[in-house]
Amino acid sequence: MQKTQPIKNITDIQRLKQYYLDRQQIRNYTLITLGMNTSLRIGDLLLLKWENVYDFHNKCYFRHLKVLEQKTGKNSLIALNKEALLALNHLKGSLPLLSEGDYIFKSREGNNRPICRIQAFRIIKNAATALHLEGTISCHSLRKTFGYHAWKKGIPPAVIMTIYNHSSLEITKRYLSIDQDDKDQVFLELNL
Hints:
By secondary structure, this protein is mainly α. The protein contains ten helices and four strands; from the N terminus they run ααααββββαααααα. The strands form two sheets. It has a two-stranded antiparallel sheet. Strand 3 and strand 4 form a beta hairpin. It is globular, with a radius of gyration of 17 Å. The protein starts with 9 loop residues before the first helix and ends with a helix.
């Protein structure tokens, strides 16, 4: 089994998001955008409801998303950035009726059920294949993409470890998928 890779190229990230925007599949675009901007595991992402991100009484988005992670049992407080809010707002505007208890990534099957993990995998894999993205791209790539780009922007790995709720820095280092090109860039750009 191949190791899931982050999407390292910013242009590829934009192409991946645009793939579903061009097809007017706003739910799928939002899934990819939120996955990369919240660092959530796919299981936690799929369980999000509108009441987790939107204050229906005051008609505004919350500044933070509060999540009890399934895997770790830990609470996470995630700031909703501009890209996440843009995607959520786009999705909200495309839906005819919306209530607090509705799942954000609602399945077309059943009454108010989230899409399943397999469907989320298909959404990501279909776009990655159609766009000829390199590496093994899956649901977990979204989470890894967050960490990789945080690291590239200079965020210390210890902070990324805390965001991920990892138990060790070694696990976080594996997530970052640092390869020879990344190492070369450090040597070539440092020039002391």
